[in-house]
Amino acid sequence: MLGPRIGIIGSDLSHGSSITPKALQWAEEVGRLIAERGGLVISGGRGGVMEAVSKGAKQAGGLVVGIMPSMETSEANPYVDVVITTGLGGVRNMLTVRTSDAVIMIAGGGGTLNELTVAHHLKPTVVLEGTGGWSDRIRSAAIDGEYLDERREYKLHFAQDPAAAVNLAFDLVSQKTDKT
To answer: Which of 22, 72, 110, 163 is such that its CA lies 20 to 30 A from the CA of 131?
Structure first.
C-alpha cells in the first residue's frame, strides 16, 4: 500500500517564469524523500518544479501522478507514471489539491498562489522557503505570518530545507489521520 499522497505546487517555466537552480535541486530532493518514505507524488505534471520533483521521486523508485491542465498526455514530463488529462486549464489546481493528503509549495508564481489559496483550508500545507517566488513572500503577506485570512483557522507551515518540508508534511498527515 502506498503512503500519503503529497501534492507539490510550484513554478513550471511557462509564461516567462524563472526558477532558481536551488529551487530545482530542492524540488528533486523533495521528490526523492517522499518516494523513499513510500509516499505518492502528485503534481501538475509539467515542467519546472513539477518535473524536478517527479525526477527525484522516479530515481528513488516512487510513483508519480501528473494532473494535466490540457487533454494532451504528451505535455507530461517524462517522469510521470500516471497522466490524468483534464482539459480544465487552471481549474485542475483544485484536483491537484483535493487528491493530496498534504501539499508542499516550492517557489511559485500566480498559479501556485492560486493552488495555495485552495490548499490552505483543505489540506495541511507546507511552504518550502528559500526557493524563490511566492514561497519566499507568503510569510510576510500572511496574517501573523501564518494565516491567509482573519479567521486564523488554517495555519500555514514553513520549512527551510527539503527534509524538514517532507517530514512536516508526513507528520501533518499522520496528525490528521490520528484525529479521524
So the answer is: 72
Q: Which DSSP string corresponds to 110-129?
A: HHHHHHHHHHTTTS-EEEET
d(CA 84, CA 44): 9
3-state secondary structure of 87: coil
Q: Which three cell numbers stand for residue 113?
A: 498562489
Side chain identity at residue 118, one-letter code: V
- CATH 3.40.50.450 correct for 5-179: yes
CA atoms of 66 and 46, how far apart (whole Å): 7
- Under DSSP, the state recorded for 74 is G
Q: What is the pLDDT of residues 68-121, one digit of tens each?
A: 999 999 999 999 999 999 999 888 989 999 999 999 999 998 889 999 999 988
Instruction: Supply angle C-alpha 47, 51, 54, rounded to 5.
Output: 155
Task: Using a cut of 0.85, tell me whether the model's pTM lies above it.
Answer: yes
Picking from 105, 100, 69, 64, the residue whose alpha carbon sits closest to that of residue 82 is 64
Tell me the three state secondary structure of residue 134. helix
